[in-house]
Design goal:
- The chain contains twelve helices and 15 strands.
- The chain is an alpha/beta fold.
- The strands form three sheets. It has an eight-stranded mixed sheet with strand order 3-4-2-1-5-7-8-6, with helices on both faces. A five-stranded mixed sheet has the order 11-9-12-13-15.
- It is globular and about 65 Å long.
Length: 356
């Protein structure tokens, strides 16, 4: 048994469109009901569960008379607008059988990039969990554009796992797990455990299904984001959802490698929108490397971008290598004149080493 999952107090469960649809690509209510049954069982034993669910566009295919996922953004957004209500209705009905309420939360990347809306999302989800409600989170496809998309719900699920301080993230898909090579290749073997994702060498070229958007590479990236913040990850086939949620050894398990960080640090590392770049000299680089000191304005030799006080910026060395990310203490124009209060560009407690 995987104690990290079996004993988890908070779990984020992500399920993809391909795992909620039938062979024709249309939403399968029976699969929604099965997912609700097992999530309800977790809830009954005291586990707080947040569900990140794809499937809005797939839910609208049949009502709109579409035979496949639309390719243009306008039709995708229209289908999402129709399908989101259908999807959440099925979830509401399925969880009602077990005496549970669900709450729909739609997010864009911009919602988590902004510090204020990030806190608002946290407060809402936290209150729902205290009320015993199952949050069902999805990307807000009706308004998201290519510039403000998560790209897929795998990355969204990893960020939500950070948001709610989950112990584990379970990603349910149409694949058995991560393989040493493309699963169709002879000799490809399932990787049961990944102790350190930084040392991983595997083929992630598998593309997404015809009703989904994610592929294996997005799942590995989601695992990297989650594990770097102390969250264990399971990648398993949706047919194994009960065993995966019970902590049995199915699919691929990614060990948490990073330490638990404050939410602000995780937001800054993985969700915040970087507004500028500060290039620093050798002295400032040494100071940052020897105990993560505050960054003084005097150590900055180049300022790129227009930013205000409190905005996230990347800090690079003379070689151009990324050293850290932080929240600037003053605006770009003020910083350029070296007149920041006390000469500080980034306070030590607002500076993080980048999560690799």
């Amino acid at each position: 048994m995987r104690a990290e999952v079996a004993d988890a107090e908070r779990i984020v469960v992500k399920i993809g469109s391909s795992s909620l649809t039938d062979e024709t690509g249309h939403l399968a209510p029976g699969r929604v009901a099965e997912l609700a049954e097992h999530v309800a069982a977790l809830h009954a034993r005291g586990t707080k569960v947040v569900l990140v669910s794809s499937g809005a566009i797939a839910s609208a295919l049949l009502p709109l008379g579409l035979t496949r996922r639309p390719g243009d953004l306008e039709t995708q957004q229209a289908a999402a607008a129709v399908g989101q209500g259908i999807l959440v209705r099925h979830y509401s009905d399925a969880f009602a059988v077990h005496g549970l309420l669900v709450a729909q939360i739609l997010l864009t990347a911009g919602d988590l990039q902004d510090g204020r809306s990030y806190r608002n999302a946290l407060n809402t989800v936290s209150r729902l969990l205290r009320l015993g409600v199952i949050p069902v989170i999805n990307e807000n496809d009706t308004v998201a554009t290519s510039e403000i998309r998560f790209g897929d719900n795998d990355r969204l699920a990893a960020l939500v796992a950070h948001l709610v301080r989950a112990d584990a993230l379970v990603i349910l898909s149409d694949v058995d797990g991560l393989y040493t090579a493309h699963p169709a290749e002879p000799g490809a073997e399932l990787i049961r455990r990944v102790p350190d994702i930084a040392q991983l060498t595997a083929d992630t070229s598998r593309v997404g299904s015809r009703v989904g958007t994610g592929g294996m590479s997005t799942k590995v990236e989601a695992a990297r984001i989650a594990t770097s913040g102390g969250v264990s990850v399971v990648l398993a086939h949706a047919d194994q959802l009960r065993r995966a949620l019970d902590g049995q050894e199915v699919g691929t398990f990614f060990d948490a490698t990073g330490r638990r960080r404050p939410r602000r640090m995780l937001w800054l590392a993985h969700a915040a929108e970087v507004r500028g770049v500060l290039r620093i000299d050798e002295g400032a680089e040494r100071a940052l490397g020897q105990g993560r000191a505050s960054l003084l304005a005097a150590g900055i030799i180049e300022i790129v971008g227009e930013f205000e006080a409190g905005d996230p910026v990347d800090i690079i060395g003379l070689s151009g290598d990324l050293l850290a990310r932080g929240l600037v203490d003053c605006a770009a124009q003020t910083l350029a004149r070296r007149v920041c209060d006390g000469g500080l560009a980034v306070h030590r407690d607002l500076l993080i080493e980048m999560v690799q």
